[in-house]
Amino acid sequence: MEFATFADRAAAIEAEPADLETVARVATLLEDAADGDGGRTVAVVARYVQGRVFPAWTSRTLDIGPSACYEAIARAAGTNVSPDDVEDRLAEVGEIGDVAASYDFGGQRGLSAFAGGDDSANGGGGLTVPEVDEALYELAAAEGSGSQDRKVDLLFGLFNRCSSDEARYLARLVLSEMRIGVGEGTVRNAIGEAFDVPVERVERALQVSNDYGEVARVAREDGREGLDAMTLEVGRPVQAMLAQAGTVTGALEDWDEAGVEWKYDGARVQLHYDPGGVAIDGADATVAADDAGEIRVFSRNMEDVTDALPEVVEFADEHLAEPAILDGEVVAVDDDGEPLPFQEVLKRFRRKHDVAKAREDVAVRPVFFDCLHADGEDLLEEPLTTRHERLEAVLREDSEREPDEVEGLSLLWRTDDPDEIERIDADALEAGHEGLMLKDPDSTYSPGRRGKHWRKRKPDVETLDCVVTGAEWGEGRRATFLGTFELSVRDGDGEKRRSAGSAVEPRNLETVGKVATGITDEKLAELTELLEPHVASEDGTRVELEPAVVFEVGYEEIQTSPTYSSGYALRFPRFVGVRSDKDPADADTVERLERLRG
Ligand SMILES: Nc1ncnc2c1ncn2[C@@H]1O[C@H](COP(=O)(O)OP(=O)(O)OP(=O)(O)O)[C@@H](O)[C@H]1O
Q1: Alpha-carbon span 562 to 573, nearest angstrom
Q2: Active site (annotated) includes residue 514
Q3: Would you say the CB of residue 119 lies under 6 angstroms from ligand 1?
Q4: Active-site pick, 263, 458, 496, 514
Q5: What is the tens place of the pLDDT at every residue in 246-276?
C-alpha cells in the first residue's frame, strides 16, 4: 500500500464524526492493506491508525525529540527554511501535522522524483507503508554517537518523499500525535468486521498478544482459528488486571465467598521467567539470557524495569524453575524486612543509573498474587483459585512447606465471614500493609480491565472524630505500648450540657468500637506518650482513660450492635490520626452515627 493512500484514508477517518462509520472506514482500510505480503502491511496499518509504530507490549520508542523532527522537516522544506522557522510556524498553527503539510517538499526530491513512479499527481515520492515502517525501525535502532544525526537523516529521507498529506500523518506518527479519533475499541471492531471474525475472539487475541498489528495480521491470514491459537509468550508483557473500589459488605453480597488478600503498598510488577533463556523476537532485551535463563520484569504500563530491580531478578533466579508469568507487587522494605511507604519504591522503580547505590539505600522485595502462565500453559481463563494454586506450586520449592512459609507468595483466603475478613485486615495493617483486596474466587484474569472482580477496599469517605475512653497494654514487643483503643462518641445530653457551658463527663460518652489497626509501632509509641497521663484506672492490661484525646477514625459501615453502649458499632474501624485541634466536647455524636447510617 502506498503511504499516500494511507494518508488519504487517515484524512477521511479524521473527518468522520460517526463511530460506526469510523469503524467501517478503518475496516475497509485494513482490507485494502492486504497486499499479499503475508499480512505485514495490514499489521503496520493497524498500528499506524492508532498512532503506534511499535506493538503495544514493547517499550521501544523512536527516541526522537520534537527538535530533531523540526530539523528533518526544515531540511526537506528547502535551504531557506530553518528548524526555528518550523517551530515558529508550529507556535502559529498549533499542530505539527498542519505545519508539515504546509511546506512543499518537492524541491528536495531530486533523484527519487526523477526515478519516476506515478506520484506526480499527488506530489508524493511513491513511498509505501512498509518502506516507512522499515525506515522507522532503522531510526529507532540507531544508537550511540552520531545516532541523533542518523535519525534526522532517515526522517529527512522520508519527508523528502512526502506529499502534503503524507507529511501531515508522518509528522504526527513520529511525534505520537496521530489523533484521528481511532481508539483501541475501533481497531478491535474493525478487525472483526474486515476479516469476518467474532469481536470477542479478537479481544481475547489482543489480551494475550497486546499487539493490534499481529492480531490484524493473524485475523487476515488465518481467521478465527488463527486468533484462537494465539497464546501468551514469556517475555511479552500482558496488561495488568485492575481493581475497582468496593466494600467487604458488597463483596459478600455479590459472591458466595470472597477471595481476600493483603493489599501491598508498592508498585505493580510482572515477572517473566524462561529457564530456556530464549529471547523474544523484537523485544528490547536489557538482561541477556544467562545461566539462570531469561528474566524480565515489567511495570504496570509494560515498561521494562528489569535493570532497576535486581532483587526481583535474583528472586526469580533463586526460586523459579519452570517458565512462568507472575503478577505481583514490589514493596520497599527496611533492614528488618518491614514494609516502607510507597514513595520509597518509586525511588527505585525507574532508576537507570547507580542502581547498586540506590539498592543500598532502599531494598525492595517482590510479592506475587497471580500466575498468568506456568510451564507452557496459559491460565488467563482459569478461575482465580486455580491460578493461585499454580502460583503456590510455582513458588514452592519444597512440598512440605505451608503456604505462609513460601517466600514471595501473597496468601489468598476464601471466606464468607466478615469477622474473619476483619481479622485479615487487622493483620495486614499490623504488618504495615495497605489493607485488603477482595477478589471473586471464580473470576478469570482480564488484562487491562478495571472490573468488579477485583476490589480494593473503598477509602473511607466520611471519618468520625471519637473520644478515646480506654485502651489495652500490648503484648510481646508491644508490651510497653497502649493499643486497641476504645472509641466513644457523645450522646445528645452531652450536646445540651455543652451548650450550657459545662465540660463533657465520661457518662455522656457512649462506646462505639475499638480501633487497633492502621497504627505503626512508631505511632503507637507517640500515642502512648499522649494518652498515659490520662490513665484513670487499670485492671490487668485494660486501662480506662479520662476523655481527653480525640481520634479521627475511618470505617466501612455503621451497624447496630448490642456490644457497645451507643447501640452502634463501627465496622472495620481504622485509625486516621489524632485531632489535636479538638476537645472531647467537639467529638461526633450518637445522632451523627444515626444520620450517617441513613
Ligand atoms: N494482593 C493484591 N492483588 C492485586 N493488586 C494488589 C495487591 N496488593 C497490592 N496491589 C496493588 O494494588 C493496585 C490496585 O490498587 P489501587 O487502585 O490503589 O492502585 P493504583 O495504581 O493507585 O490505582 P488504580 O489501579 O486504581 O489506577 C494494583 O494495581 C496493585 O499494584
Answers
A1: 17
A2: no
A3: no
A4: 263
A5: 888 889 999 999 999 999 999 999 999 998 8
Q: Regarding the domain delimited by 52-174, which CATH topology (the fold level of the hierarchy) does it fall under?
A: DNA ligase i, domain 1 (1.10.3260)
| Second-level CATH architecture of 464-597 | Beta Barrel (2.40)
User: What is the predicted pLDDT for the residue at 233?
Assistant: 94
Q: Cα-flanking dihedrals φ and ψ of residue 292, to 5°?
A: -80, -10
Q: Which residues of 506-524 are buried (b: 16+ CB within 10 A; e: fewer)?
A: eebbbbbbbbbbbbeeeeb
Name the pTM for this structure.
0.79
Which residues make beta-bridge pairs with 119?
none
Instruction: For the chain, give every domain's residue range.
Output: 52-174, 242-457, 464-597
Q: What ipTM does the predicted assembly reach?
A: 0.96
Angle at CA of residue 183, ends 180 and 187, nearest 5°: 105
Q: What 3 state SS string does 76-128 have?
A: HHCCCCCHHHHHHHHHHHCCHHHHHHCCCCHHHCCHHHHCCCCCCCCCCCCCE
Question: Is 268 annotated as ligand-binding?
Answer: yes
Read off the pLDDT of each residue in 491-505 and give the average, rounded to a whole number. Answer: 53
How close are the terminal C-alpha atoms of the chain, in Å? Answer: 64
Nearest to 241 by CA among 556, 452, 10, 515: 452
- Name the nearest CA neighbour of 211 among 79, 331, 47: 47
* 296 annotated binding-site participant: no
Of 238, 241, 263, the residue with max ligand 1 atoms within 8 A of its CB, to mutate for a pocket test, comes to: 263
For ligand 1, whether the C-beta of 534 sits within 6 Å is: no
**Topology of domain 242-457, per CATH?**
D-amino Acid Aminotransferase; Chain A, domain 1 (3.30.470)
**Confidence at 549, pLDDT banded by 50, 70, 90:** very high
Q: Is 422 annotated as a binding residue?
A: no
pLDDT > 60? residue 465: yes
Distance, CA 411 to ligand 1 centroid (Å)?
16
Residue-wise pLDDT for 70-120, tens only, equals 999 999 998 889 999 999 999 999 999 999 999 988 654 544 444 444 444
Backbone angles phi, psi at 87, to 5 degrees: -65, -40
Strands 450-457 and 242-246: parallel
The reply to whether ligand 1 has any atom less than 6 angstroms from the CB of 425 is: no
